[in-house]
Amino acid sequence: MTTEPSASEVEGGHVAGAEVAEAAKVTETAAAAVESARRPLEIEVLTLFPAMLQGPLAESIPGRVQARGLAQIRIHDMRHWGLGRHKSVDDYTYGGGAGMVLRPEPVAAALDELRRPDSTVILLDPGGEVFGQRRAHDLAERTHLIFLCPRYEGVDERIRSLVDLELSIGDYVLSGGEIPALVVVDTILRLLPGAIDADSTAEESFTAGLLEYPQYTRPPEFRGITVPTVLTSGHHEAVRKWRLKESLRRTWRRRPELLEDRPMSREEAKLLAEVSREESSAAADAVAEAAAKAAQAAGAVVVEADGDGR
Question: What does pTM read for this prediction?
Answer without folding.
Answer: 0.78
